[in-house]
Automatic annotation (TrEMBL):
Binding site for GTP: D14, H15, G16, K17, S18, T19, N128, K129, I130, D131
GO process terms (BP): positive regulation of translation
Ranges where the Tr-type G domain occurs: 2-181
Top-level taxon of origin: Bacteria
Upper classification of the organism: Bacteria, Pseudomonadati, Bacteroidota, Bacteroidia, Bacteroidales
Subcellular location: Cell membrane
Alphabetized Gene3D superfamilies for the sequence: 3.30.70.240, Elongation factor 4, C-terminal domain (3.30.70.2570), Elongation Factor G (Translational Gtpase), domain 3 (3.30.70.870), P-loop containing nucleotide triphosphate hydrolases (3.40.50.300), Translation factors (2.40.30.10)
Molecular functions per Gene Ontology: GTP binding; GTPase activity; ribosome binding; translation elongation factor activity
Topological type in the membrane: Peripheral membrane protein
Organism: Prevotella lacticifex
PROSITE patterns to which the protein is assigned, alphabetical: G_TR_2
Name the UniProt record assigns to this protein: Elongation factor 4
GN (gene name): lepA
Keyword Nucleotide-binding attached: yes
Family to which this protein belongs: Belongs to the TRAFAC class translation factor GTPase superfamily. Classic translation factor GTPase family. LepA subfamily. Belongs to the GTP-binding elongation factor family. LepA subfamily.
Amino acid sequence: MDHIRNFCIIAHIDHGKSTLADRLLEYTKTIQITEGQMLDDMDLERERGITIKSHAIQMEYTSDNTKYILNLIDTPGHVDFSYEVSRSIAACEGALLVVDATQGVQAQTISNLYMAIDHDLEIIPVINKIDMPNAMPDEVEDEIVDLIGCDSSEIIRASAKTGEGIPEILEAIVKRIPEPKGDPKAPLQALIFDSIFNSFRGIITLCKVVNGSISKGDKVKFVQTGQEYTADEVGVLKMDMIPCPKLGTGEVGYIISGIKDATEVKVGDTITHVDTPCKEAIEGFQEVKPMVFAGVYPIDPNDYENLRTSLEKLQLNDASLTFQPESSQALGFGFRCGFLGLLHMEIVQERLDREFNMDVITTVPNVSYKVYDKHGNCKEVHNPSGLPDVTAIDHIEEPYIRASIITSSRFIGPIMKLCLDKRGELVSQNYVSGDRLELIFLMPLGEIVIDFYDKLKSISKGYASFDYHIDSFRPSKLAKLDILLNGEPVDALSTLTHESNAVALGRRMCEKLKELIPRQQFDIAIQAAIGAKIVARETVKQVRKDVTAKCYGGDISRKRKLLEKQKRGKKRMKQIGNVQVPQKAFLAVLKLD
Ligand code: GTP
């Protein structure tokens, strides 16, 4: 146990976490890097450059003739995944705090850092990218000293590109990070921090043994779910899974126990022995509460069951995704999925497409609302079409977030305006260092869900970082905006919005839909309505287009090819009444200017 070091890396997106991890693996000869980065194994992650899922990897490192086992637990950096970050952090005794020498400390770095400090992790500050010509290591050093109150001599300057500072980082890991605490003789308590789906082995649970030990063949129980299993295989994670007879106190590894159902493994749950169970679960378990909801519908109704299986498999790898069957008049049978945020939603949609070949339509996302009736009963509504009749509603509450934005003082004006336009209230503003400020706002989450990130990025030219936590539910004056196509309400296009925005939003949605809905063989009326009142209208003029017109003569195979092509083009369309609506239209509200 005294030769084990469990640590994670806290860094803002693009500050070099993956590259640094690769260097550590390379230096310890855990891997030979050939090309690209090893930790992000999903193509999607590579493309987006965001570490979506936590992984763990073991390295061996010798210092002063003593061999150490270092377990690096990877953490996602995006705000949408903060629960996964908190579980990875709970499995560690130390953290490398990596800050880009050209960028300085960012909002997400701070919130993850606070989480690490809350868990009493030993923090090793690292200034990365010191090889860059525009690096400002002295300024960044001051920021870090202000932030964590450490001595500047404790800060390591490094470059994950050139390898400078890597030996110092490894030495700091073994010298400064404490060995895992825990009682080898106590009943087993292992913290689940991740799980992986493997089509041959079923569900693989990743955990850290906090107390006691687990051996191959043990009968174990998952405390929160109450399910019992046999540990068919236990082992450690290097580049491959390496089976071993036992995982002792403080060790990080995997357990395979023949679990097939994705929903049985919950990140944050505790594993114990059936015969000698621990008294209580490791604290801090929390069912992740999704805050953003959207309908996901198969384009081909026959794919409904496949979609369910695919979502179950995704859920296994992504404990924060939730889903429930729902139906829509416009889209048929599908699921209402709960996501942590908008990025999470996009990722799920892309993974459905790539990994499961599912063509789906996603509806406009919304947050969850608390709807109170006249008798004081409260109902949570995740879907605008689930809203009770207006006459039955006393008031509605919507979730508010506490948002932190760190930026240079020259962008303060436009950022203030953006936040105030989004119904934000300024709580405080503090200097971080030099001319960089942290602004704290209370804002409705519903306003962030739509297009906040993109706007913030563009007005600050990328020099603003953003992080948020759910703060409270507050009463709001909300209106339900419906969209009608040729007089038919399209439930999948309904949104809930603040009364003051509703008319303008209706107008912009009609304009946008006019651009997105292709002309068809008849006029299409697009209307926006609040209750019975029509507040905006646009028309898509008819057109007559016969794709086969240009192949005169009887070449039937050519004709068929053209029709096939047209059909493929239609795949991402949905028939609503007699109108063909493209997928893009269902997300139109997200891209309004
Ligand atoms: P996410 O996985 O998105 O959280 O990003 P990350 O923090 O893992 O960043 P990543 O390692 O992908 O690095 C981001 C970019 O910075 C890549 O283009 C790296 O090649 C580059 N980079 C990382 N470290 C250094 C460094 O020390 N010097 C220089 N010049 N570039 C670096």
